[in-house]
Amino acid sequence: MTKTVHILNGPNLNLLGQRQPEIYGRETLADVEAACAALGATLGLQVRLMQSNHEGAIVDQIHAARHEAAAIIINPGALTHTSVAILDALNAFEGPVFEVHISNVHKRESFRHHSFVSLRAEGVIAGLGTEGYQAALRRIATLLAAT
Ligand code: DQA
Questions:
Q1: How many domains does the chain have?
Q2: What is the CATH number of the domain that holds 70?
Q3: pTM > 0.85
Q4: Which residues of 18-30 are buried (b: 16+ CB within 10 A; e: fewer)?
Q5: Which of 3, 32, 63, 143 has its CA 20 to 30 A from that of 42?
Q6: Is 114 a catalytic residue?
């Protein structure tokens, strides 16, 4: 059976391509979804991308992934730096988790340097632009093939 990877995105990422393009680029979340779906097809993985501006909705999406996904790629946006609830939800998920940031958060304000999600993530990708999602997907394919 084809394994599914959920790609979860937090607050303001619905505006990807429009907000601060000098930091986040011109590609939209729909472009990310299309690129990851195409790559997933070559890797034998199905991809489902979601976005929410609400912390509780993201917690619910992580709970749903417990039954529906073999792995999670998550860009929690600003909730990266604040949300113990998202960390707790990810700790209740059994598969690999990869944290993606489009920008290099370590080059930016110091409040972006700490991530609660990194305590759970197998890997963290920052500063590769939207290609970071695809890098995470490739690594997940390697990990899942070994299980
Ligand atoms: C982000 C970095 C966060 O600090 C910021 O709040 C975002 C996007 C990134 O993808 O670079 O919304 O997660």
A1: 1
A2: 3.40.50.9100
A3: yes
A4: eeeeeebbebbbe
A5: 63
A6: no
